[in-house]
């Protein structure tokens, strides 16, 4: 039998050690090259180089084998063809495609013998190589099927079996790819190189990896987790390659470099990402970039199910969280929201499979008078199962401070763990898994400009972001760290302008400053959590400085950085703020001149950008929410008379002004389905919030006897 013969052949391969081995066969769908792994001698694992014909497996493998000082064995010549007495191509011709071993069976043999690396080479590069080799047909390519089609078809099978991807940039040489293979092997075997530390410490006595920080959320010392060695920097050729991909594939390629495969395998990560960014987004581009005027572009981040940029993180983060969870505990996710995070968290976690939802609860705290009516309806409509939203008679800062205080209370955390087998975590942007996916859309905006030939790689852009908790701005700076040529991040505030004041003066002063209600409530924040990550970044990881500054902020409501550090901050970040009148005026002017309706937060960004951007490079303004979420303010800005009180009528009114194509259908449906649902209103008392947490746990999980 053919199957038995191949199984015996692969058994021979699995016995080979300290040799470099190649094959143009491998399985009915794969061509392979083998390499014994000398990098991790105790494990004695082979390495399979997997990829289509023309990927360079043989050439790359020989270079790697020479660098590692290993003899070379060609599986085609020395194993398969000697056994068969004919070439692989002749064997295929003799038995036909259906007679070849199924990839499932053969790859199980191969996987047992070692590590599978996928040489992910650009299709156009492969076609050019095969053309130079005068190869116009490959194994398995039927009549009428183009080379490009068969290569694209095969890729799904490579994606299914890889342990790690070697992302080959456009035009990479075989020497470049060989270097990347060795780096990939080193990364896979050296997970300790991707540890996380707290912003408030230089070193962690207890090593923390991606899975740990996803679950813990906040570091034990009160700091936020950051990668110890920063972000990986991709090469220009890799960015050129990624620019040709759709959004979900861009996300996979970028996030694979940021999440170690021992924490989340590439296969699992790809599945999560494609589930996160699929039909649940109203626009097939996920985050379309639209030209607004002259040098300005709008990055629309509101096409997700809850109509805000938070969906870009919170359609993926719950899947990462569930994947990393230990099996023995229940988890209660605590979230403080200024409006958009709450509904996005509820939607994202509700989409988990039932087994995960049974052991994960969600409790949202939002300021009663600090969110729009539509935002409130989005949250209070989820009062079922293990999900609940509670209004607090205070502001966002109180809600966020209370959650941090709970995490910092060992007696409370211990009580919940012992009494209910429940651990607290968070889905705010203080959680690394909340922040990380946001890096992708900043990269994607630049890649769209690249693909549209607005610029060539290396040309700079500026990014303007409506800023409250600084997470979105921080993710843009991380995109810059990965190699995206972002020159300046412009932080735009409303009249709660503590961030812009800090960027200008170096002083973070909350003394005598009260939170003011605005038309852009998502950035109505005075105590910006992710500013801690930014100061850690700007100070080159000075954990002692960060600890002292933020302890001073807790104690005195004030800190000031040195002039040297302030000047360094200004090299990367600019900031400004706008009044309520300026915000509404911008909405009206853009609609009159461009026919485009901005939400209030995007308008804040537009006003600040117009004032301080020097117009010497393209500017991307992040549109963080759909205008329908803030319908009364937007209708007022558009000079609409007799604004309706009912949210559905408000959205209908916006439809008549902007056209149905500018409406967010999921938002409209949510409002039509929502009723006047009762919800809990809690006093601004920390102990009362703790009581709500314990009640939520009792209602959600079985009590441990």
Automatic annotation (TrEMBL):
Superkingdom of the organism of origin: Eukaryota
PROSITE patterns assigned to the protein according to its UniProt record, in alphabetical order: DEHYDRATASE_SER_THR
Keywords carried by this UniProt record: Amino-acid biosynthesis, Pyridoxal phosphate
GO cellular component, one term: cytoplasm
Gene3D superfamilies the record matches: 3.40.50.1100, P-loop containing nucleotide triphosphate hydrolases (3.40.50.300), Threonine synthase, N-terminal domain (3.90.1380.10)
GO molecular function, one term: pyridoxal phosphate binding
A biological process from GO: amino acid biosynthetic process
Chain ranges of the Threonine synthase N-terminal domain: 196-277
Modified residues (N6-(pyridoxal phosphate)lysine): 310
Cofactor(s) demanded: pyridoxal 5'-phosphate
The protein's annotated pathway: Amino-acid biosynthesis
Matching NCBIfam families: thrC
Family affiliation: Belongs to the threonine synthase family.
UniProt name for this protein: Threonine synthase like 1
Taxonomic source organism: Cyprinus carpio carpio
